[in-house]
Specification:
167 residues; mainly beta; four-stranded antiparallel sheet; 2 helices; 11 strands; 8% helix; globular
């Protein structure tokens, strides 16, 4: 029922949903807490990631990604601090992670000439599952991001210390 509504919503429903339904969107990704939605939508003829708050419908800026297009395969961490995606620099495809808190872009170079195809970021941003094309074959690799990124934990979750036990 929901899929039918998404593909056949009227313009009145689109406005009621905060303008979420642009005419052409693909590759949706929700943050773990369900507050943010990332989609790929054409801008000036290039596939571009858009990040939208589902609380109020507004588009959120992604300044660190403006010069790196086209985009594909967005994936969000739990609170949406991190946005992983595939982008292009010249003729080379790159997997990157954008840190929205400090506006930093972390390129993830892949040795051996492998090209990233799809990414999936773990909710805490500690790992990235990466589909790559390697000599005409698909492979999935796991990258450990724990030395690169701070964890993105659900609200109220401790970073390093376990909860105190009652005495």
């Amino acid at each position: 029922m929901l899929a039918l509504c998404v593909s056949a919503c009227s313009s009145r429903q689109e406005q009621a949903a905060g303008g979420l339904m642009d005419r052409s969107q693909e590759d949706p990704a929700l943050s773990g807490d369900g507050r943010l939605l990332a989609v790929i939508s054409p801008q000036r003829g290039r596939p571009t990631v858009q990040l939208r708050s589902l609380l109020d419908g507004r588009l959120l800026p992604l300044p660190s990604l403006k010069r790196h297009q086209p985009h594909s395969s967005p994936s969000l961490s739990w609170n949406g601090r991190y946005l992983a995606l595939v982008t292009q620099r010249g003729r080379r495809r790159l997997a990157v992670v954008a840190d929205r808190l400090n506006n930093r872009l972390h390129p993830l170079p892949l040795p051996g000439g492998r090209d990233p195809v799809r990414v999936s970021l773990s909710p805490d941003a500690r790992q990235l599952a990466l589909q790559v094309a390697d000599q005409g074959r698909w492979r999935v690799e796991l990258l450990d991001l724990s030395d690169l990124l701070e964890p993105d934990r659900p609200a109220g979750a401790g970073l390093t210390t376990p909860p105190l036990e009652p005495q």
